[in-house]
Amino acid sequence: MTDLDTRIRVSFDAQTMMQTPGASLVEVTPGHCVIEAPILPEVKQQHGFGHAALTFAIGDTAAGYAALSMMDPEQEVLTAEIKINLLAPARGDKLIARGEVVKFGRRLVIVSARVAAEENGKLTEIALLQGTMTPV
Amino acid sequence: MTDLDTRIRVSFDAQTMMQTPGASLVEVTPGHCVIEAPILPEVKQQHGFGHAALTFAIGDTAAGYAALSMMDPEQEVLTAEIKINLLAPARGDKLIARGEVVKFGRRLVIVSARVAAEENGKLTEIALLQGTMTPV
Amino acid sequence: MTDLDTRIRVSFDAQTMMQTPGASLVEVTPGHCVIEAPILPEVKQQHGFGHAALTFAIGDTAAGYAALSMMDPEQEVLTAEIKINLLAPARGDKLIARGEVVKFGRRLVIVSARVAAEENGKLTEIALLQGTMTPV
Amino acid sequence: MTDLDTRIRVSFDAQTMMQTPGASLVEVTPGHCVIEAPILPEVKQQHGFGHAALTFAIGDTAAGYAALSMMDPEQEVLTAEIKINLLAPARGDKLIARGEVVKFGRRLVIVSARVAAEENGKLTEIALLQGTMTPV
């Protein structure tokens, strides 16, 4: 593992909100991050699909670590604001979120993320997020 | 319980994503909904505060049920999009989300929600959400 | 005029984008700002109503000056991001935007604004904005 | 000109808010639309850059026509909501907005737009928009 990998994984592992639903950090490179989570029985909405809060959780986290991957090693990151447009129900076995940095600034980092659901090996895009991360 | 109460509670109880973190439906009246959730060890972010995904989860759900409370009994509701501005860390024992309808339309319902954190009996506003719900 | 009034008016008058459509600064107090604009023939959309860009222009500006009114005199303000939900067509003679500070921070100021349209003396709420301003 | 071109141009030409600042419809293909506008002295903010309302105006309009280009010929389009993240000041001679459809639905069309500023022939990305259009 690279130093970047290690740094992000230590932070990721400290988030119980990621551990509780079984989310995993798949990949992190400067400005990019991929996170997956299974759609378990514990994270459903009232119609039996994955809950928007799970989609939000991994989309926001992937975007946040994409931002953190470009910051100085001693910095941490916070979401200042983020918007999610839901495109389709979270149907299937797992969710995959890809976060990326749109514009890196010293005080504000603009990010986006796309979340897809995998059902029987087929991916469907279910959400698009756009937000602002701040270093702390 | 009124018919409205019963209808919303049946839907709320079917959301495992609300049951898993111990969230509860406190109150629902036409156009308004209050949801609470404890800040348990399982829903933390990397600095030990409540995770933004929990804040989002109950803010979005309170806003959604505020919308559903004004719809016809046979309708269901989906979040089309929602934006969250985070105002302060989720510090304390529990979160309280108050959702309300800003503009009720037949095809689109504009909603907002405010989320506060309670620490030693003192409330701090931690998030403001604004979004669009659609009947299905 | 108070010092605050003078400071905000000097900035407002320097914005040709406010002067061109005839917008006026009605009132500014710490954390609040009201801006009006007539719905002139020059700022219509394709169905003959006021254009969303005019609604955005005065909503964003009212929110920005609400933020600036709480900053140190030597600071300027920039919109980092803002979201607008359109509630109804901009029908009538003029638009009135009321901006306010939701949370004042040293690095980020969270703001909201409501825009109403006046037709024959009757006000209809047409837009709700929520955003982030940064001092520069 | 194709039928699509003609249909969108008729609508574009009816928007005085596009004609007033000299905006032009550069290109429209199914799901995509490009709009340009000069940064004239009439559309500045207080620091002398192009105003965010101009950036919003052409970004929102490019996104709206990207959506309209995929709708039935008798339909019109309205912005339900849109969010803009501003990445850099609007410095230079003209702005170019590229709108595209992210997800086309019968009742909601999710769109995005990127706006760039051209200064001495060099493009800088200045804004990213994400929103929801509805057919009417």
Can you characterise this structure?
The structure is a homotetramer of 136-residue chains. Chain A has 136 residues and is of the alpha+beta class. Chain A has a single domain, classed as Hotdog Thioesterase (Thiol Ester Dehydrase, Chain A, Roll). In chain A, 24% of the residues lie in helices and 43% in strands. Chain A has 3 helices and 6 strands; from the N terminus they run ααββαββββ. In chain A, strands 1-2-4-5-6-3 form a 6-stranded antiparallel β-sheet. The radius of gyration of chain A is 14 Å and the shape is globular. The relative contact order of chain A is 0.20. The model of chain A has no long low-confidence stretch (mean pLDDT 95).
The rounded distance between the terminal residues' Cα atoms of chain A is: 25 Å
Superfamily (CATH H level) name of chain A: Hotdog Thioesterase
As residue ranges, the low-confidence spans of chain A are none
Q: How many domain units of chain A?
A: 1
